[in-house]
Amino acid sequence: MKLLTIIFRKELKDMLRDRRTLFFMIIMPFLVIFLIFNLSMRLGRDMEKRAQEKELQVAVFSAQPLPAFIKLLQTKEKVKIDTRVSRTEINQAVNDGRLDFAISFPENFSENIDREGTNEVPVYYKASTSENEQALGRIHKVLEEYGKQLLNLRLEKKNLAAAFVEPLRIDDRDVSSVREKIGQRLGGMFPYFFVIFCFLGAMYPAIDLAAGEKERGTMETLLVSPATRLQIVVGKFLVVTVSGIFTALTSVLWLYLVFRQSKTVPAEVLSGILKVIEWKSLLLLFSMIIPLCAFFAAILLSASVFSKSYKEAQSIITPLNFMVLIPVLIGIFPGIKLNAATALIPILNISLATKEIIAGTISPLLMVEIYLVLVVLAALGLIFCTRWFNREAVIFRGV
Do 110 and 186 reside in the same domain of the chain? Predict the structure, then answer.
């Protein structure tokens, strides 16, 4: 045990001396969280603002004059009616950008209205233009308002009240608690930070403590020490695991600080989130970080032990970043729930469990299953890594 402690302290000191590792453990989480959060919020606001402030070029096509609709359209701000485009040029004009929207009333529109029929009114626009896609709501509101005017005229002729056309009013009542709603929304974001930063926090120490030592020629010094190879591997494994845990906790701290300092998040929303996320939930989330980081540490250390140089280790491990993200993305899909089967899938179980924990609906039995799965996989990875470390052909590859 004493030798294992010495190995652990030695590897920990080596890791803390590496500026690159410290950058990815402390600075990188802050930069990523700050940039993602602020850029996404700013881009969303700017896009919505541009869509609302953009002057829309709108053409209206109708066989008969529609003075009521034209007047209604003219009362809207930043809407310009274009009369230069013919009906046959609609597609070309919208594609060229000369028109933002084209509203085409059918030729028998007035007759259908007089017969109290229903008209289908196509609205042409280019969805690939993001501003127009968001501004489509402005056109819909005008058409809906015009439709209500026509309906009121019909009701007046029949001497009927507005309630006549609304025999049924749907009243949706969501019985989900506020905590469950926030859990479903935040639960899709939290796994990104947990999984990504657990992986990144463990990746660079794993590369440096195995492939890096091979490249520097310091691995031989460890091998001739009184420590057994198992103790050496376990010492490195513990340091890599601690590094992943520390990076994950740092990312959560940065996320909290960015949320608190951000002026884009309404105060009532922030207070609601902080009330929902209790200490019990945080402890459960952090308890999953430990086996997850151990799982990542075993995989990354195995790949690093196999590599003969720092560069080769990076080329082997870098593609794993994308493989790690796939289960997290699957967990966001609707209909994917945490159950006895999905709890067996590593990383996906973390993604699904995070939503359940924040919502307060996590099953204790499923949590135990997740812990067991990750601990067993980490143990198998550690055994595999130790066997490779015991093979001279692997340790001295390229020497």
Answer: no
**Dihedral of alpha carbons 104, 108, 110, 112, sign:** negative
Residue 76 inside a domain? The answer is yes
Check whether 179 has a pLDDT greater than 70.
Answer: no
CATH number (domain holding residue 64): 3.40.1710.10
pLDDT tens-digit readout, 181-239: 655 565 556 666 778 878 888 888 888 888 888 777 777 777 777 778 788 888 888 88
> Does one domain contain both 120 and 243?
no
Q: Are residues 32 and 115 in the same domain?
A: no
Q: Which pLDDT value is given to residue 36?
A: 67
Q: How many Cβ atoms from other residues are within 10 Å of residue 41's Cβ?
A: 14
C-alpha 122: how far from its chain's center?
35
CA distances from 102 to 2, 44, 67, 119 (A): 79, 26, 17, 16
Counting the structural domains of the chain, the total is 2
| Residue ranges making up the domain that contains 189 | 2-38+181-395
Which of residues 138 and 30 earns the better pLDDT score?
138
Q: Which one of 162, 192, 211 terminates a domain?
A: 162
Taking only Cα atoms into account, the Rg of the chain, rounded to an integer number of angstroms, comes to 31
